[in-house]
Each structure stands twice: as structure tokens, then as C-alpha cells.
């Protein structure tokens, strides 16, 4: 148990993944509540602990119902962070898999520097998807929009 805690707190990637898990649950809870879902807490807990369910939620949420109001600032900030974290983790995995970053353990300060650079890169698509309505355009293109939302989703 002590080794697990040491691993979690010694790497920014482990610690940020725990923060990401909590934020994704909160983000999904807010969205599902706004859509009038009866299972908002179930969706939030499921996506927090079984993260492939996030994709299922994103595909299913147009079936739950439309949003009455657009997402607020707090929900958008959380969404930007979540997308930035997802991209950061994928970049880290890709750089390690291709050998660009050696697969040895780095000191926490070095990993933190890697994390910050990759997170800045990851926030760029998060900003576009959340603040510039990119996700709304993608959802509209694929028809993943509830009828009541069609008027508020811009091209």
C-alpha cells in the first residue's frame, strides 16, 4: 500500500489521472443533470471508475434529452481540463511507445516538466472543442444532437 501511494504522489501523471477521474465524474454529473437524466449519479460514478464508459456516455447523451441552458463557465473549464488531460495522456503514451521518451523512471521534477508541456499542447484541442463550439459542430455533423438543442447548436 505504501508503494502505491509513493507511486501516485511521485509522478504528476498518476496524480493528474486521479484528479482527471474525479473531474470527469463531476463533469458528466453536471451534464446528465442538465439533460434531466434519472441516472446522473450512476453515469458519473461509472465513468469515474470505468473510463471507457465516457465514450458511451458521449454517444448516448443525445438520447437522454437536450440541455435547457448552455454549459456554464465552470463546466467549460472542467471540460477543457478533461480534454487536455486525455490528450496529454495519449501523447505521453505515444512518446513512450515510440521511444522518443525513454521508458525509464524520471525524477518527479523532470516528469512535471514533461507533463506541463504536454498539457499545454493538450489544452489547445480542448479549448477549440469547448470554447469555440467545435464539439457542438461535430455533434451536429454526425446527428448526435437532441431536437430541442438544434436551434442552440451553431454551425
TrEMBL record:
<feature type="transmembrane region" description="Helical">
    <location>
        <begin position="72"/>
        <end position="92"/>
    </location>
</feature>
<feature type="transmembrane region" description="Helical">
    <location>
        <begin position="112"/>
        <end position="130"/>
    </location>
</feature>
<feature type="transmembrane region" description="Helical">
    <location>
        <begin position="41"/>
        <end position="60"/>
    </location>
</feature>
<protein>
    <submittedName>
        <fullName>Uncharacterized protein</fullName>
    </submittedName>
</protein>
<keyword id="KW-1133">Transmembrane helix</keyword>
<feature type="transmembrane region" description="Helical">
    <location>
        <begin position="12"/>
        <end position="29"/>
    </location>
</feature>
<keyword id="KW-0812">Transmembrane</keyword>
<keyword id="KW-0472">Membrane</keyword>
Amino acid at each position: 500500500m505504501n508503494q502505491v501511494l509513493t507511486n501516485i504522489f511521485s509522478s504528476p501523471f498518476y496524480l493528474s489521472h486521479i484528479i482527471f477521474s474525479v473531474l470527469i465524474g463531476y463533469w458528466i454529473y453536471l451534464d446528465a443533470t442538465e439533460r434531466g437524466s434519472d441516472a446522473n449519479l450512476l453515469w458519473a460514478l461509472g465513468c469515474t471508475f470505468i473510463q471507457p464508459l465516457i465514450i458511451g456516455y458521449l454517444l448516448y447523451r443525445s438520447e437522454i434529452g437536450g440541455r435547457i441552458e448552455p454549459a456554464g463557465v465552470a463546466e467549460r473549464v472542467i471540460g477543457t481540463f478533461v480534454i487536455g488531460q486525455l490528450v496529454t495522456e495519449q501523447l505521453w503514451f505515444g512518446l513512450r511507445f515510440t521511444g522518443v521518451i525513454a521508458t525509464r523512471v524520471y525524477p518527479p521534477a523532470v516528469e512535471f516538466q514533461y507533463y506541463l508541456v504536454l498539457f499545454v499542447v493538450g489544452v489547445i484541442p480542448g479549448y477549440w472543442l469547448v470554447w469555440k463550439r467545435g464539439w457542438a459542430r461535430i455533434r451536429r455533423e454526425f446527428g448526435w444532437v437532441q431536437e430541442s438543442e438544434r436551434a442552440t447548436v451553431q454551425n
